Amino acid sequence: MYPIIFASPETISNIRIIPMEKEEFEYCIFDEASQIFIEKCLPAMFRSKKFIIAGDDQQLEPTDFFSTRNKIENEYTEGISNEQEELLEFSNNESLIDFAKGRYRRYMLNFHYRSKYEELIQFSNYKYYEGKLNVVSDP
Question: How many angstroms separate the first and last alpha carbons of the chain?
């Protein structure tokens, strides 16, 4: 009934594929947000009226090992505009999940479904999730 586009943030950023029009999409869903650099998401966020950010801040941060990434050095910030200050703020966030923390309402899932055996997740459950995860034995 409604058109849906499944694509990576890099693909959405390519204006030859999808024109850069503000709020062209109703929603944009970012999954595995701990693995995405914030600057890769900005074009998709610009094109969306609302966005959903899903991820786990206890997972590894994104890596730029296989790609190039522009880094903004924040040595001289005196006299910069508000817009430039916002860009510097984005550059200081490693991942989209880091950017989202404290800005948006946060929900935690109650069930872990990736491990068939509870013993495999117990250490992480108590170390990082305060023992709140329930393991689904038959995913």
Answer: 30
